[in-house]
């Protein structure tokens, strides 16, 4: 079994819980509140900015051109292609996507972003890839399973979103997995253990991100300054 097959097997229950999460069920049914979609897009816009910064740190730790090329391609993908699923959610919610930029992070988005940035600063390139991989991999599985379960046509409000991730997250997942498997062959036991931990942590945080959007999660006490 390859290293990433092992990672996938050990997190199968988390992948399953994500697929069963009420937000993902809402995508399947075409039924989500406008507030939930807006909260997701606001938080995901900031998440994707952080994700690109992590790629930047990964580039600074890359020894080979193929690695640099792969990270650079992924930055371009996020900048130019991943606006499409956000537009799909915004259209369903009836809001202009430009209004959803620059919002403060909710607790779970904050947690996920800090996790990725900590691994990026402190870890090896293999550890960074392990922390990043659940992002395309969980979305690829959601997209593929929804394509199969829902068989959405253009009348489904999230038709474009499902098609996008069912097809477009495959490339990043396959490239990441190949690089991570090659890295794991050379890594020692201790580093492989850290890679597993980061992968599991990111899978759990993917679940929490959906939960945050579904429950409109905010800080328990408003961070706004007290009235003077
Ligand atoms: C919380 C969250 N997790 C995953 C994705 C999906 N995603 C983000 S970047 C990327 C491509 C990887 O280079 C993919 C598939 C998302 N949008 N938001």
UniProtKB/TrEMBL annotation:
User: What is its pathway?
Assistant: Cofactor biosynthesis; thiamine diphosphate biosynthesis
Domain Thiaminase-2/PQQC residue range list: 13-215
Keyword annotations: Hydrolase, Thiamine biosynthesis
Please state the Enzyme Commission number of this protein: 3.5.99.2
Q: What broad class of enzyme is this?
A: hydrolase
One matching Pfam family: TENA_THI-4
Question: Which residues are listed as membrane-spanning?
Answer: none
Catalytic activity line of the entry: thiamine + H2O = 5-(2-hydroxyethyl)-4-methylthiazole + 4-amino-5-hydroxymethyl-2-methylpyrimidine + H(+); 4-amino-5-aminomethyl-2-methylpyrimidine + H2O = 4-amino-5-hydroxymethyl-2-methylpyrimidine + NH4(+)
Cross-referenced Gene3D superfamilies, in alphabetical order? Answer: Heme oxygenase-like (1.20.910.10)
Family annotation (InterPro entries): Haem_Oase-like_multi-hlx (IPR016084), Thiaminase-2/PQQC (IPR004305), Thiaminase_II (IPR027574), Thiamine_Salvage_TenA (IPR050967)
Any idea what job this protein has?
Catalyzes an amino-pyrimidine hydrolysis reaction at the C5' of the pyrimidine moiety of thiamine compounds, a reaction that is part of a thiamine salvage pathway.
Similarity remark = Belongs to the TenA family.
Q: How does it assemble?
A: Homotetramer.
Q: List the protein's name.
A: Aminopyrimidine aminohydrolase
Task: Quote the gene name from the UniProt entry.
Answer: tenA
